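Moderator note: this is an archived Q&A kept for reference. The question asked for a predicted structure of one protein chain; the sequence and the answer are reproduced below.
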Amino acid sequence: MSTLRGALHILAKDLKVELRTREVFLTMTLFAILIVVIFAFAFQLDADATRAVAPGLLWVTVVFSGNLGVARVMDKERELGAFQGLLLAPAGPMAVFWGKAMGVLLFMLAMELLVVPLALIFVSISLPTSGILTLILTLFLGTLGFALVGTLFGAMLADVRMREVLLPVVVYPVVVPVLVAGVKLSAWAFDPAAEEPVGFLPLMAGFDLLYLALAPWVFGRTMVE
């Protein structure tokens, strides 16, 4: 069985389970909405201040919700040695990684599709038409990088005690370059008249390529050994 075919089988399995339970998507979405609502009602800021802090709020919401989603996706495989069974499948560990990473990516993108417009409404901030494409591309690149790193460490810590605490501790430092670039580019998307953050988009793309190369390799070596 090819790696791609095996990954698609695992992805299809995760999507079917999610359609029945809606556990991962609802957990991530409700948590993200809670963060946005608390911020919107706890801080009474003027338009300029809101526009300045909106990128940070956006990425805090995405990262915290994504961390929760990674944990829930991996928890589904802990019972009765299901994760070990997947690793022993003919497609091999690489198919497991890509299947799980694609699942995390799709769940996060679906959550963002709902939460980001709600966040803009709650904080009363408008997104210029010229910044829509920049924000979409930035969110995709940032989500891709987080999904790759989160899947890697989520699998490595699946059977570790206090994994809910350890997961963000090891994931966040690795994805800091992507998050910083994401905040800078999102701020420019909200205010295109500001100085363009030159170099941050290639930085995000470069780190995503690095994660794409290293994360599957580390996953294969770690899970086999």
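Archived answer notes: The chain is about 80% helix and 0% strand.
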